[in-house]
Specification:
Blueprint lengths: L1 H21 L20 H8 L4 E8 L2 E13 L5 E10 L2 E9 L5 H12 L2 E2 L3 H4 L3 H4 L10 E5 L4 E7 L6 E7 L7
Length: about 180
């Protein structure tokens, strides 16, 4: 009888070990921005943090993707020394997939932002073809500025694209979640 109990105990331990190994890996927590917003949040969650947006562009079809945009005008942005910016949150399927920050009349701010990104790692020329429909998150008409540079954050699977318009007065900084379902 003791042998039977010992065998059953060993079998139970083996089953528990196999079940523990078969568990799905823990979901990686998305990076949080200075204001507490995280990729994957719903529109309601972002509004709870940021307040009511200036405008909601619902179901804006870009390429083969339907984006919903929450637009906030003239708000301070902690990521860039509380500069006053226009910030747009882009959603696909009610999940936050991109954040676009627009700096008007930026002047020398472009170099400061570029230096801050370069301090994080190597700057690259973005491959917009590889982004597919995510290029519409970077630029509404799908044609980003030719002088764009990017920083690839492989730890968090993000790409940050920095654009300076032709006349040098408008800067767009777009952060894309490369884990977003619509990119796969």
């Amino acid at each position: 009888m003791k042998k039977l109990i010992a065998v059953l105990t060993v079998l139970c331990l083996l089953c528990a070990s196999v079940a523990a190994l078969a568990e799905a890996p823990a979901v990686k927590e998305k990076i949080g921005f200075a204001n507490g917003v995280r990729f994957g949040m719903s529109q309601a969650e972002v509004i709870a943090i940021e307040g009511e947006p200036h405008e909601i562009d619902a179901e804006d079809l870009k390429g083969l993707v339907t984006f919903t945009e929450l637009e906030y005008e003239k708000v301070p942005d902690a990521m860039v020394d509380n500069a006053i910016v226009d910030r747009t949150y882009l959603f696909v399927g009610d999940k936050l997939v991109a954040i676009r920050i627009d700096f008007d009349d930026a002047g020398q701010l472009y170099e400061k932002i570029r230096e801050a990104l370069a301090a994080k790692g190597e700057m690259i020329t973005p491959d917009f073809a590889a982004l597919g429909n995510a290029v519409f998150a970077v630029d509404d008409d799908g044609t980003p500025e030719l002088n764009s540079v990017a920083f690839m954050d492989e730890t968090n699977n993000l790409i940050t694209v920095l654009e300076l318009d032709e006349d040098g007065t408008d800067i767009d900084l777009t952060i894309l979640d490369l884990d977003a379902d619509y990119l796969k």
